[in-house]
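To: structure subgroup
Subject: Chain for Friday's discussion

All,

I'm putting the inputs and outputs inline so they're searchable in the archive.
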Amino acid sequence: MAEDSGAKLILCMLSIAVLPIWIKAFWGYHLFPPRVKTIGIDLGTTHSLVAFMDPLNFSVRVLKSVPSIVTFLPNGTRVVGNPQLLEEHPRHTIFEAKRFLGVSYEDYVGDEKLHNYPFEVTGLDSGQGVGFVVPSSSHKNTVYTPLDVGESIVTELHRRLVNYLGYKTMTKVVIAAPAEFTLKQKELTTKIFENAGLKVIGLLDEPTAAAMAYGLHDKTSMNHVIVYDWGGGTLDVALLWVQNGNIQLLATDGDRNLGGADLDSCFLESLAPHYLDTASGKQKCHHHILRQKVEIAKEQLSSVNVTSISCGGRSKKISRNDFESGCKNVLERALVPLRKLLKDARLNASDVDAVVMVGGSTRVPSIRQKITELFDGIPPLTDIDPDTAVAIGAARASND
């Protein structure tokens, strides 16, 4: 009995001794919880996102996306992420700058797509890249580069995150870049973030980030994974090999000139006659306004069968079938790189363990249906918002 009492006394004394430590740890954790130090960012062609791992519950949080648009106002102010300013200041508003990162102006000479931009695209004096000519209040033009535009977007993403969290400790970042980016383009992408005051501690290929978002690298049943990434500016298809927690990029294909913007264009072309004054040939609805309404209708038709567009005093009901018929050629073209990737890799559909859908254009129901049919009735992975998958993957990698 004496021995039991002595043991209890010792245990009691030890409990009293460590009690202050437990109290300090408890109150320290709740009064001064762990802070986010590393974030993941997807700097996209049409939209950009920032995500982070919540240190309290290890879940991934994603802030609302920011349109990859920067308006350089005549008074010197920069406004990030406001598409409405495109109508008011078309020559001052730069979008899709990622398309021009690390490329030569000579590659775009004679390209009809340059006419789709309301701003002026020019070659830099060094002959090593592309710049955007923006008028200023002093009647002198200012030339901005894709790095300038990217830095503004990243700075805005970081600002919004600081406002959301209430502190500034998150200075490290894991980023993602298209798999087909050259070494030069990846270096320039890194420089964008460094110019914005962040330290890049990791750079993932976007397909790898998307696979990590679904945790496929942790699944023993996974080997061959295809990432189908159709965003606003480009279509990229990648084949990954997954084994023992590692992801290896085996092959890529795609169409650098096919994106959601092309769906907007073909849809717009099919609808434009309704908004033309056949007597005078003048368009009743301004081109930029109609294009914005068409883009909204396209997005709506991913979840509903019928919507409507009102513009220039005219209104018309639009069905999903109208959209798919008007964009039939584009939708068929979007499957070509996927079929080619399988053929070049000498893979059958049954050899693929999973298909991950990334990018807003993959919301189009007919694309999902056609890919399901191509892979013997097995639907692609769409549980994660396709616009956020890359950012989520980058955020998860930041915690590894």
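Points worth raising on Friday:
The mean pLDDT is 87.
Residues 220-258+334-380 form a domain with the Nucleotidyltransferase; domain 5 fold (CATH 3.30.420.40).

D.
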